[in-house]
Each structure stands twice: as structure tokens, then as C-alpha cells.
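ingest -> fold -> write
write: protein_1
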Amino acid sequence: MFIGIYNRSVIVTYMGIASAMVGMYLADKHDIRYAILCLVIAGVCDLFDGKIARMCKRTEDEKLFGIQLDSLADVICFSALPISIFYGLGLNKWYHVVIYTAFTLAAITRLGFFNIKVMDSNRDKPVDYYSGLPVTCSAMIFPLFWLLSFCLDRHIFLLIYTIIIAVVAFLFVANIKIKKPKGIAYGVFVVLAVLMSLGIIFIGV
């Protein structure tokens, strides 16, 4: 009836996209607290979608579809959603638009570049190191720094946040090695995500 693939190998990716869309709606309504929470949820989904997909028996077409879907999901979850949040925070000067453009270009350049790398390698073999900062890290960095808004002067907070956005954009395409989390590290990230989510929900209430 429909084109596309809808089996369990991609369901977590779809959940992450759904969370991002809700987050963008909330950011537009200036409900930044829960928009940030949606970003964290999208990050958790992205953390596990590849792992779950590799556990599924997939055809070659399903593997290729998963690669493309994951990259498109990353653009929505970790570029479009964060920028919606930035605007919701009031970072809407002309120079912010320049930074957001650089942020988006860096994100899609990274994703496009590594799509090529994945196509040329064993698609079921996880990598040991990332080159540059994965775009998924947006789901941890921006929520953590958002918590500073409760203890800093608003102008200072917005300045720091603007600098962080620019630094993250640079790190997306910087040729530096970052070790990929494995095994117990996934559990640690989940615990951090839960703690961060609790902080987002309750701090400043």
C-alpha cells in the first residue's frame, strides 16, 4: 500500500523523528523545557536504533534504507530541532542566522560524508572511533548547557549558548578522533539521559 520500510529495524528511528517533531512544535510555543526534553528523547532513540537494526535480519535494500533514513532523521532531530529551540530561547539576531546556517551545513556535510564511508565499508560492522563530533551529541550538549539558564544572568547565558553552538558546528566537521561508546557506556548514557531529563523537568519549577 505504501512505499518505504516499516519493520522493527527502523521503528526506533521513526520514534526519534516523532519526538523531534513534537519538540519543534513545543519550541514554537516557547515551551523550551519540554522541547529540550524531546531532544534528549530523540538522542536516546538514535543511540539505540543502529544497535537494534543490526540485531534484525535485513535484506540489502533494508540496510540501505536504514542508512538513508538514519541520516535524514539526524538532520531533523539534531539540526532542525536544536535550531527551533535556539529561536525559542530568543537567539534570533542576524548573526545567529549566520551561525545556524554554518551549524546546518556542518551537520549535513558530516552526514553526507559518512554516508559515503558507510557505503564503502561493512555496513554491519560498528566503528571504533568517530572522526569529529557525532551530530547526536547535540542531544546531550545543548540540554546540559540549557541548565545554566537557571544560574546565570540571561544575557551571559545567551552569549555562552551562542558560542557553544558555533563550537559544536566546528566540531561536527573537525578531523579529530572520538572513541565510540560501547557496552556499558550505553547504560551510562541512558542513566545520564534519565538524570538530565529529571533536571530538565524539575529544576527551576
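write: protein_2
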Amino acid sequence: MSPWSRAGWLATPGAVLIAFAVVQAVTGAFLMLYYVPSPDHAYDSVRFIISSPAGGWLVHGVHHYGASFVVVLTALHLLVSAASGAFKRADRRAWLTGVVLLLIVLGLALTGYLLPWDQRAYWATVVTINLSQLAPGAGRLAAAALRGGETIGALTLTRWYALHVIFLPAALVAMVIAHTILARRRAATVEEPPVPFYPEQAARTAVIGLLAGAFLLALARHGAPPLGPPADSSDTSYVPRPEWYFLGLFQLLKYFPGRYEVLGAIVIPALAVLALAALPWIDRRPERDLRRRPLVAAGLAAVLLAVSALTVLGWRDRPPAAPAAESWTVRAIGGRVFVERHTCARCHVETGVADPLEALRLSRGPEWTAAHTSDPEMIAPGLREPPAPVNEREIAAMVAYMRRLSGEPYPGFPLRTETAAAVFSRYCIGCHTLDGDGGKDGPDLSRIGRKHDAAALSRRIADPESVDPKAEMPSFGSRLSADELAAIAAYLAARR
């Protein structure tokens, strides 16, 4: 019999939380059968799991959305305990273990985020490690421990994997046991008649658990968020977004830029956790009715309002999804032209010696892909028709195209756009920037159409000295065909 059952429906989150933690452990164990914690294979292993006809996609979906349920149930359990004053009937250490449980659950959610090793996971981890460096005193040590090396790579992935499947789960089990023992130790001495857990409270818990489980299965059947492109450390234009339960912190950081970032990243969250942990010492009066505890009621309302507002603002502030065509960079579009020009399809076809490029899901880094592109015989020795030498800029464009192709099909562009993209990727990108991609020696051409029309741009490209005798830019009149010159001039003129 448990005196905690007196709370009725409000006592169900704790028991349901245990059930969902078991679900996470079971689904996680099945995922471990196929997951490979290495940068070369992590992405492909997750892709295999979610594309498996044997139900891997469902297990992955349950595990993915189950993390959100566990976070919500843990927070709800603490909220109910605080609002009902239940912590006053138990050992104060029970409340402290509950706060630690919340931190462990958030740690599990955070460490699991990296494991798919796609762009979203990689760059979110970069942000997390960078923020950890802001911690006064031990920041650099914490970042080094999380990173495992000079850069984020194999050691980072294996460390986060070990935290996710060994250390944090072990800590979670220990804290659950300690929390349960401490919660019952003092509660058993309270001079109130205990209420039997069976059958009423057991029935309430079962109803809530079944409803939550059905909702979780419905979400999982809908499918977990798809994998993004494979992790690419060279793509610094990617803007990561955290899971919804970290959006409040993500939004808070926006209000503390520059040197004040430590306030939003470390100081305010740490003070909030300390205030939460100190609640039994702050609220020491025997009253448990929330209406007779105005200070606690106001504090809980303020915290709920702040967290909800920051989360909603963070959700609304997400960038709109770009149409497929708009999300392709000029370098990647130009890479399509070079792939066709260098006849990669001689091998990469349905009946060829390699998979079609459209079917490839690259899991290796851009360096490996570039090396293979420049020398396919490195991977496939003895090719009957070794390809012609490829320019370094063309290789970079081809790599960008193939890695972008791993995320979604090529949307198709007008021939003139592809021609202009190939010209820019081959001749211009070393000195000029377009949408954040390119060199810094020359001016940024992202909005060049606001200053010059196509005719003026054509003259500047063909013979720069005819426009400006002091121009340092080389002449491209003899290097480009008339169609190429017209295409690149029109393309840049449209950049407004």
C-alpha cells in the first residue's frame, strides 16, 4: 500500500514514467543489434534500421518519440510533487534524486541526438560542445571530455554512445531505486491512513499508460523524422535545430549574444536547477494546499509561463523549409554538370559496376569522396576507360552534388542555370562568394544584380580591363563560349 496513491490521477506520471523507461531500454537494445558507433558506418546503420521491412522503422520511431514522453513524464512528476507538496511527506533527499533524474533524462536525450551522424546531429553536437566551453573554470575540460579529440569525430561518437547506452542508463536505474526508497521511507511514518494501490490506483495508472502508449504508437507509425544528409564538417552553412524540449534554452541564447552568452547557456539554467533542488528548504511550512502557498504557486506559474513562452517562440522562429530547388547551392548544381561531363554514369548505372548516383547514400567524409572522384581507380582498379583528369574546383562541385544528392533527389534546373552554375563553380568560386559559399578575394556576388545588368556583367567578365583599367580580375572572353558567357551574365544579373 502506498500513501502516495492518495493523489489519485495526479500520482500516475511516476508509474507511467517507469513503464516508458522500460520501453526505451527495450527498443534501445534492439537498435543496438544493428547500430555501428563509428563515423564510417553510423549513418548507414541507422538508414538500414529505418528502411528495414522487419519493423526497424517502428522500433526506431518508438524510441525516438519515447524520449519526448520520458522527458515530459519526468517533468510532470516533479511538477505534481511540487504543486501538491508531496515532497513534504518524504525524505528531502527524495526530491533531490528526482531533480537528478530529470538531468539524467535530459542527458540521455542529448547524447542520443548525435548517434544518427547526419548533418542535424553533427552540428547540434558542435553547438552543445561549444556551449559547454562557456562553463566557468571547467569549461575547457568539459568540452575536451565531450569531444574526445581535437575535432568532433570517432572518439566523440563512441564517447556519446557509451554515455547513452552504459553510464547514463546505469545512473538512471540507481537514481530510480534511490528515489523510490527515499520517497517511501518518510512517507510510511506520516500519520495518515494509507490508501491501497490496488485496484483503484492501479486502474488509473493502467488507463493513463495505455492512452499514452497508444499515442506513442500512433506517432511511431507516422514515422520518426527522416535522416538528413550525412554529417559534413565542411558545410558550415548548416543551421542546427534542437529537439523541441531544448527549444526554450535555444531561444534563451538569442537574448544573450556575444560575451553575455554564458548567462543564457550556463548561469540562468544552473540557477534554475539550484532553485528547483532547494525547494524543500524554501517551502518549509507544513501546508500542502497550493492555495495556501502563494510564493510557490507564483514561482511555479512563472516557470511554466517562461518555459512555455520560450519554447513556443523557439518553435515559431524556425526558418521556413526551403523548396527543394532553392536549397541547392550553385556549387552543387554545377557539380551535376561536371558529373555528366566526366561520364560518371559509365559505371554508376543500374547495370554498371557501381550503384547509380541517385541511389547512393554517402556515409564517408568529403575527403574520401573527393579522392575517389579524382581517382576512381583507387576504389575500382583496372577500369577499362580511366577518366580524364579533373580540376580541383570541379571535384569540389561534384562532391557537393553527390552529398546533396544523398539528402534528396535532384530537382532539375533549366539548362542555362546549370551552365551558369558550372561556369561559376569552375572559374569564379575561388575568388567570389555566392550565398555564403566561395572565396573572399573578390566582391560578394550574391546581390550583384542590384548594381549591374546582364550586358554590363558580360563586359566585365569577358574583358574586365575594358571597364576598369586597374582591374585585377583575369579576362574570360577566350575561355568561355558565347552561350556560357551569356548564361553566367544573365544568372548573376538575376541575383537581387
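write: annotation protein_2
The chain has 19 helices and two strands.
Residues 1-5 have pLDDT under 50 and may be disordered.
pipeline exit 0
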